[in-house]
Amino acid sequence: MPTHLVALAPGDGIGPEIMSATLDLFKAAGVMNHLDFVPVEMGKACFDRGETKGMSEAAIRAVEDYGILFKGPMETPKGGGGKSINVTARKLWNAYANLRVFKTLPGVETVYSRAGVPIDMVVVRENIEDTYGGVEHRLTNDMIQCKRLISAPGCDEVHRFAFQTARKLGIKKVHCGHKANIMKMTDGLFLERFKRAAQDFPEIEAGDVIVDALCMNLVVKPQQYQMIVLPNLQGDIVSDLCAGLVGGLGFAPSANIGNHISIFEAVHGTAPDIAGKGIANPTSLILSGLMMLRHLCLAREAALIENALLTTLESGVHTGDFGDKSRPTPSVGTQKFVDAIKDNLGKAPKANAAPVPEAAEACFTRPPRPQQMQVIRTFTNVVSHVSGCDIYLDTPLSPVAVADEMSRACADTPFELKLISNRGTQVWPTGSVYTECVDYYRVRFELRKDVPLGTIGQSRAVALMDKVAEKFTVCSFELLRQFDGVRGYSMAQGQ
Ligand code: NAI
């Protein structure tokens, strides 16, 4: 009698082929005694029908009811048009941590396997925030911006998940990858909250590494990392780099974990060039399915399948996209590959066999549906005061001409003109003639020295913007505030 329902979206391109092969394998391993896979409509067919989310209302209801989505790759319209369904699903259901496991697999030849360097590491990527909010605007003729959003509770959720997972997997050291040397506030917050979370896991060593150095280290000596936790965009790039270390995206499983809903998917795309040919490699989807089985506490079935998969790879059976060149075994199609794994159920590989528990323990219970949207908070009781504003202008004038106009605009206000920057570099009151300017200026006003902090509210800053807007196109506006006496904004380069 199945105990859990799983929403099943086979995907586009090679999706249906690798999904049906994976389910065939799961059935042979007894998974269907515990899980009932319920097909839902997601992907290209929905986009083609004009459903901009890329999924039907019934699919949304099913995923929310069951708490688990198992999905194949889905086509994303490029450039304009619908947003990526993968990103939409993760964000809509707050699957805030992307967990990817990278392990050297037998029979999968890579530069590292040839050199005898074993790889076994986990990447946890924050999944909701960062530039993946997709908050983008055209500000002037020549300038487009993308907002990078990093929140303290968003960081806390992903760091807590990373350390909890490290504890569960027996991982002794977790690194935080970041770029806090340049983005001192956003990446700085990500790093600071990592250090804070680490205090609750004293048995795990916490380290940090700047993301560019991390990429080099991963290529030169990947075995020095056990788990790396990163902000969204950096995590996206680093996790594909790690996939390359173990043989490509076809061998990198992925889970998107949230408090209520989790999504398990193959990380490669729909492979339109080989779709319908029956030659796609189902390994990534199978491995992602194993993460799902373990999430649902079907550890016995997961271990059975994993051992059979490793035994099959060890024996040299492979699809056309990989293999060990020193053993010229001809490639097989998707179904033959899965048939070989089925034949190996009950066998164990020579190296790194997963222990097979006696029976499945049914430990997964889906948390109840929230009554309303939650507001998650980290810092409360912080006192903030307005100390100025940044007004962003669309103008082709020179910095000196902008400064003249802005000095006049703030003449009878509590604010004084503090600096002007262009693309983040200060161009007034001092600057370099070598700095090239574009048609988008930031003009910073701060409270005059004789105006005490806390005596002026935001309406005076908005009034100043109003005055500037009488003569200039104002593209955007940011309040400058101090939080518990600490400046809540960055300085310009060269300031
Ligand atoms: P892709 O991953 O589909 O293909 C890149 C190359 O890898 C192709 O040569 C393909 O044949 C090969 N390949 C991929 N998976 C394979 C497998 N399982 N077995 C054998 N060969 C495999 O990437 P591409 O071409 O950039 O994207 C195609 C479509 O997939 C796009 O619409 C893209 O938006 C979407 N996509 C969806 C993802 C998802 O649903 N998670 C992730 C990445 C892309």
Keywords:
495 residues, alpha/beta, Isopropylmalate Dehydrogenase, Alpha-Beta Plaits, 2 domains, 6-stranded antiparallel β-sheet, 14 helices, 18 strands, 32% helix, 21% strand, binds 1,4-dihydronicotinamide adenine dinucleotide
Give a verbal description of the structure.
The chain has 495 residues and is α/β, with parallel strands linked by helices. The chain folds into two domains: 4-343, Isopropylmalate Dehydrogenase (3-Layer(aba) Sandwich), CATH 3.40.718; 384-487, Alpha-Beta Plaits. Helix content is 32%, strand content 21%. The chain has 14 helices and 18 strands. The protein has helices at 15-28, 44-48, 57-66, 85-92, 111-114, 152-169, 186-198, 211-220, 232-245, 283-295, 299-314, 334-343, 399-409, 458-469, and strands at residues 4-9, 35-39, 68-71, 97-103, 120-126, 136-138, 144-146, 173-178, 205-210, 227-230, 253-257, 262-266, 384-394, 415-422, 425-428, 440-447, 473-483, 486-487. The strands form three sheets. It has a ten-stranded mixed sheet, sandwiched between helices. It has a six-stranded antiparallel sheet with strand order 15-14-16-13-17-18, with helices on one face. A hairpin with a 5-residue loop joins β6 and β7 (144-146). The relative contact order is 0.12. The mean pLDDT is 93. 1,4-dihydronicotinamide adenine dinucleotide (NAI) binds at residues 14, 18, 73-76, 86, 249-250, 265, 267-274, 280-281, 321. Residues 14, 18, 73-76, 86, 249-250, 265, 267-274, 280-281, 321 line the site of 1,4-dihydronicotinamide adenine dinucleotide.
